[in-house]
Amino acid sequence: MFLVNWFSGWSPELATLVIAAMPIGELRAALPIGLTVYHLDFWPVFVLSIFGTLTAAIVVMAVLDPITSFARKYSQPINRALEWLFERTRRKHQGKFDKYRDLALILFVAIPLPFTGAYTGALAAYVFGIPFRRAFPLIAIGVIIAAAIVTAITLGFKSAVYVIF
Questions:
Q1: What mean pLDDT value characterizes the chain?
Q2: DSSP state of 22
Q3: What is the structure's pLDDT at 45?
Q4: Which of 13, 57, 121, 158 supports an S-S bond with 109, CB 3.0-4.6 Å?
Q5: Taking a C-beta distance cutoff of 8 angstroms, is the pair 128, 94 a contact?
Q6: Would you say residue 162 has pLDDT above 90?
Q7: Could you tell me if residue 8 is left (phi over 0), alpha (psi between -120 and 50 degrees) or otherwise beta?
């Protein structure tokens, strides 16, 4: 309800779009809120949620390299921390990534669990050196799959609650 209250006074469509672009929840929050709280029609919520989430992913992919390059250049402690983090991540997950390649990124974004989604998919693409032209379509496919899963869960839950009460 925090998000809903925070956006009171906004149009439901704009609130849905902005919620989808936020790293907390992404479309995993925007779709259920748009469908059940704002009572918007299915297609507008579906499209706005996907658009908001993908817009955020584009921004992350566009600014991640310049920000990390700047931080590495001007802060030795940040440079060491990023090197450690990226090397550790590559060491732990490079085998899975090499084995599954594109499917790994799609599934990572598509699974509607905490710490997965477009933001972390964009970060993973950066860490594993996947160029934007290759990463964005894969992230978009994952976002569409996630939207379908979240919509099915939301509408199924909404129907179940309606039948019970």
A1: 88
A2: S
A3: 96
A4: 121
A5: yes
A6: no
A7: beta
Tokens of 159: 């129907």
Question: Which of 148, 143, 124, 114 is closest to 53 using CA atoms?
Answer: 143
pLDDT in tens, 62-115: 999 999 889 888 889 988 988 898 888 888 878 877 778 899 999 999 998 888
How high is the pLDDT of residue 159? Answer: 62
Tokens found for residue 94: 């490079």
Longest dimension (CA), the chain: 59
Element (H, E) at 33: none
Classify the phi-psi angles of 25: left when phi > 0, otherwise alpha if psi is within -120 to 50, otherwise beta.
left
Across 4-65, where does the E strand assignment appear?
none
Place of tokens 């496919």: 141
Cβ-proximal residues to 15 (8 Å cutoff; 6+ apart), any chain: 4, 7, 33, 38
Cα torsion angle, 5, 113, 117, 155, sign: negative
**For 21, how many CA atoms within 13 A lie in the half-sphere containing its CB?**
14
Distance separating alpha carbons of residues 37 and 45, to the nearest angstrom: 12
Task: In whole angstroms, give the CA distance from residue 15 to residue 37.
Answer: 11
